Amino acid sequence: MKSLNVNISENNYPIIIESGLILNIGDKIKNIYSGEKISLITDSNVDNFYGESVVASLQNKGFNVKKIVLPPGEKTKSIENLTFLYDELLDFTMSRGDLIIALGGGVIGDLTGFVASTLLRGIPFVQIPTSLLAQIDSSIGGKVAVDLPRGKNLVGSFYHPKAVFIDPQVLKTLEERFLYDGMAEVIKTACIKDKGLFDYLLELNSKEELFDNFEEIIYRCCDIKRKVVEADEKDTGERMILNFGHTIGHAIEKYFDFEKYSHGEAVAIGMYAITKISEEKELTSKGTLEKLKTMLVKYKLPYNAKVDNIEEIFDTIALDKKSSGNFLNLIMIKNIGEVFIEKIDKAYLKEVISI
Ligand SMILES: NC(=O)c1ccc[n+]([C@@H]2O[C@H](COP(=O)([O-])OP(=O)(O)OC[C@H]3O[C@@H](n4cnc5c(N)ncnc54)[C@H](O)[C@@H]3O)[C@@H](O)[C@H]2O)c1
After folding, report:
1. What is the three-class DSSP state of 40?
2. What's the rounded mean pLDDT across residues 116-143?
3. Could you say which of 138, 173, 208 is where a domain stops?
4. pLDDT tens across 30-44, in order?
5. Pick from 173, 189, 213: which residue ends a domain?
6. Strands 163-166, 125-129: parallel, antiparallel or unpaired by DSSP?
7. Ligand 1 centre and the CA of 121: distance in Å?
8. Number of domains in the chain
9. Domain holding 296: CATH number?
10. 84-92, long-range: CB < 8 A, 24+ apart
11. Counting atoms of ligand 1 from 1, which one is nearest the CA of 185?
């Protein structure tokens, strides 16, 4: 078992990482919640594997549980499901003293967190992230949101959970493509802040070894995210470093209509593209790009894409939220584990960008 504490202005909360934790989640919840009523929100994939045992474990500890199951996938993070959940929770006469639990990947975590932050002006909630991306990234940091038809995460708030409970064992049932998708964010974390983790990942030789080491890997990623969030709770500065590979990555996702590449794959291509530029500009030490490529290939991630119209990619990048006037703040690495923010002239970027 490993644990961390997130120290933010309004409250502190624990992140507990423990293999097999999900089987006695009732005990864990009992330690942090003295009420009786719990609404558990999940999706049907996660429900198939863990819904029954989680409900049983909570009921064994005397909790009165209502389980709400939504369809899986990004489309679930909608305004329609928001109002659906408000109704379900109010039908169960949830009050501000009760507890909501998010059991699932980033979609369920973001949606449930936003419901919890807004219903009755805020009901306490707990995150039990079940995808790798949710365990190392989305469950930490308090960003909760739903999508609008015109874009992702356009309605949201900052609302931290009471606790985050992570069971690395549940990753065994995650589809392979989601596993490697999450690995892209693990690699990003290592690239920006943890050379030791990068080397450690390179040494693992099989999927079995990866699973044997997940507790440590997740712990290190959560610790880095926790520190960055503590330094910049509301995402106005330092937190930008978490976007390494994301500016170009988002443009790639959009260019291919969010169909060809998953988020993680697009971030992988983005990390490689930006490091190619920074290494050519001698802002990054020679050989870093090659190390990154070795890592991406090892974890079944792409490092380039066939883009016919690079202009279109550049146009999307130019509209990025880190853009100001003729310049763009881009996240780069000096070496593995050493991140920095570089102000780049858009005209220069247009000249050198290649995917
Ligand atoms: N809040 C944040 O800071 C933050 C950060 C990054 C991403 N996000 C959001 O996270 C979302 C993506 O999250 P995601 O990649 O976890 O997607 P997801 O929630 O859709 O989960 C991926 C898939 O895996 C399934 N699944 C999850 N856990 C499983 C398990 N243990 N066993 C079997 N199947 C399982 C889900 O049903 C789903 O089909 C996006 O909406 C993104 O905007 C939020």
Report:
1. strand
2. 97
3. 173
4. 999 999 999 999 999
5. 173
6. parallel
7. 25
8. 2
9. 1.20.1090.10
10. 85/41, 85/111, 85/112, 85/115, 85/119, 86/115, 86/119, 88/39, 89/39, 89/115, 89/119, 89/123, 90/119, 92/37, 92/39, 92/66
11. 6
